[in-house]
Specification:
mainly alpha; 3 helices; 74% helix
Length: 90
């Protein structure tokens, strides 16, 4: 997130929450991915765009600036994930 500073305590809390929920996150992602693979490549992209936009708009229904900021933050996180071994590029 451009310009925002996050404290070490906030980072620790984020990782603690994610670590606790990671098994369910992985199960949910696997189910969703399996369903996506039943679609054609273009339809997969459309489904992901619709899912992401719907989630972002649900999070910030009346705040376009915050919605676009979250969209950008998600994009940055996807790029970071892709750059890791787990994400599959390296």
């Amino acid at each position: 997130m451009s310009g925002d500073t996050i404290s070490n305590a906030e980072i620790d809390a984020i990782y603690a929450e994610l670590d606790a929920e990671m098994p369910e996150i992985r199960r949910t992602v696997n189910r969703m991915v399996n369903r996506l693979y039943k679609l054609g490549p273009l339809s997969q992209k459309q489904a992901l765009c619709m899912l992401t936009a719907g989630w972002i708009r649900g999070t910030y229904p009346d705040d376009d600036k915050a919605a676009f900021a979250l969209s950008e933050a998600v994009r940055e996180q996807v790029n970071l994930y892709l750059a890791t071994k787990e994400g599959g590029i390296n």
